[in-house]
Protein: 4-hydroxy-tetrahydrodipicolinate reductase
Organism: Planifilum fimeticola
Amino acid sequence: MKPIRVAVAGANGRMGREVVKMLVQDETFEFVRGISRTQGGKDVGESIGLGSLGVTFSDSLESALLENRPDVLVDFTIPAAVKRHAEIALEMGVRPVVGTTGLAEGEIAELARLSEERRVGAVIAPNFAIGAVLMMMFAARAAKYFPHVEIIEMHHDRKLDAPSGTSLKTAEMIARNRPEIRQGHPEEKETLEGARGGYRHGFRIHSIRLPGMVAHQEVIFGGPGQTLTLRHDSIHRESFMPGVKLAIQKVMNLDRLVYGLEHLLEE
Ligand SMILES: NC(=O)C1=CN([C@@H]2O[C@H](COP(=O)(O)OP(=O)(O)OC[C@H]3O[C@@H](n4cnc5c(N)ncnc54)[C@H](O)[C@@H]3O)[C@@H](O)[C@H]2O)C=CC1
Ligand SMILES: O=C(O)C1=N[C@H](C(=O)O)C[C@H](O)C1
């Protein structure tokens, strides 16, 4: 079997580095190009401490895709860049696997339309850690029995978007199984702005940003006389790699966009 040719946008970032490390250790993949903003021409491996890989960075996504013709583009960049990256890839027949968060619902819908139009598969997953995906699935299930719920997401303090993509996806999955009820006291008033968190689908999401953290989330359900807490912790970015690997493999056989790794897991 020919290896799957993969380019990585954001290959010099925290997640990008981990993805490159995973790709070069697995012979079913061929890492063909890194895309950066400022590292053009440099050897990716040397820049990220893996030693020479003989694969360079390009500062232009279009040139990288034209020159290297990857099967898949993995994107771990920034909210401001990801939509255009995915569009460029789809237009050039390259399957995007997107981990970058911060895409609005409407932007995901536009990418889904483009993917279907071009019949080029795509995966957008706000969280590639299988444990986090299970937590979201369990939360959706619990919401049938416990409609009162709040989410607390905790991340490192270099994160650009709040709330996290994971918490928004969790909220969306919970909302499908729960009527939109009013939670808390009907006359509740915030005496400190933001104290009750952000409101989404009828409940609250709270974001914590601190050094020392990686990615953590609690979904807390409350009912008469009991609470149920679901918690997931990514304590290292290697936690995301089995999911990235799965998405790269599965996207090869898709002809539309899949939003969420839960749709790619075996029953
Ligand atoms: N889906 C998932 O499982 C996960 C998603 N993330 C998301 O991935 C994204 C990246 O996270 P980190 O790696 O921690 O961030 P980071 O800041 O360490 O890396 C981002 C990299 O993208 C590069 N970049 C920015 N604009 C670019 C452009 N136009 N072209 C090419 N490269 C560009 C930056 O120079 C940087 O090296 C974030 O949105 C984060 O929320 C992070 C962890 C897991
Ligand atoms: O920025 C991060 O680090 C992470 N971002 C994703 C999110 O917004 O949910 C996934 C994970 O939580 C790590």
Remarks:
- Residues 105-118 form the longest helix (14 residues).
- The domain at 4-124+238-263 is CATH 3.40.50.720 (Rossmann fold).
- Residues 9-10, 12-16, 35-37, 76-78, 81, 99-102, 125-128, 240 surround NAI (ligand 1) (CB under 6 Å).
